[in-house]
Specification:
Elements (H helix, E strand, L loop, with lengths): L9 H11 L15 E6 L3 E2 L11 H8 L5 H18 L25 H19 L5 E5 L8 E5 L1 H12 L9 E8 L5 H11 L4 H15 L11 H5 L11 H7 L5 H9 L5 H9 L4 H7 L4 H14 L3 H9 L2 H5 L6 H13 L5 H12 L2 H20 L7
Length: 395
Amino acid sequence: MAKKNDTDKLSELLASFNDDLLGDDLPRQFNDDSIKVERILLDLVRPDPIQPRRVLPEKIHHDFHESRLTPSQALREMVQIAQVAARQRGRPFANLLELLPNPERDETDTKLTPEEELLRELVNLAVTIRDDGQVNPITVIDVSEGATRLYRIETGERRYWAAWLLRDFLPGYESDGMIDCIVVPAERSSVFRQAKENTARKGLSAIAMARQAALLLLTVNGYEIPDYTVTNDFYRQALELRIPRGAGEAIYSAMGGIGKMRFSQFKSLLDLSDEAINIADRHSIDEGILRHVLALPLEDQAEMLQQVVRLNLTVKQVQQICEQNFSENTNADNVPSTTVKLIRSVFKELDKHTPMDFARAAYEERGDIHMARAYLKRLEQFAREALEHLPDGDR
């Protein structure tokens, strides 16, 4: 848990936060020489481990920030995840440029996985930097110690990863390994400026908004903000905190001008289970859906969200499912425990396999094509009959 600092400096902090929220261009927010624009070696720059907007997938995020992966290795792992997903959906790619939209290709019904979508965005950004140059510098905090130069990203992490893609992954471009940065002294860093940038550039996911709310709330309550990767429990500390008098306007403004109720709705999402948070963040699931999932037991939340993703459920459908007293309609208390375990296993594992793999496994198991077809047809009929025992979702 974080250690609380002296909260007597709240007025001074809010004054500096309000200064950060004036104007759109960072250099105009400062009237001294403390802000510099420099070209810095990529190897000397690192993303903020507690940045609410997660660029990398959860596991890669932690492995990278705990120094188990280099930037290139982290990107390579993400590329491999995207390649596997693309191959399973019959659209394999070898060159990253193949991810970019192609007007000659019909992509009307193409649904990309979150990793494919992210990689496409980064590749598109990298190509833009290659063709037009880096128009917007990233903002970094000088966290150097002695002779060791080091900079932590405050805003612009996607441009950082695009620069690494350009350096190590896109053929035909000779990168100098540098990136344009606005350098801010450590004492001038601001979680409020970071929040404003996050909400202004591209809307945060509901979970990222929850992390952002927590980070702002922890800051104004005097909590120490670590410079290392944290678990969800760090952000959950904010669930018990209130906004100090006089801090609300700055917080709501930093989060895009939302109101008190909306702020509370986002913050409450931190009560979701860790697995549910991961799924919701990865798939950018809407807060309106997550609000209803909160009513479910912790052990059921992730499974519900997997169904939301797989079936593209609406807010209304999720609300009906979560509010329905399912046990009254199905006599769930009389269902054998072995059946419950079987169906949970099927729901959890089904999306990990392709229909082709399923057919091949059935053939290998029965050893005969006719027997395999017979058992698959039996399974199909079994599922159809089970469906008839469920109440109509429109009632």
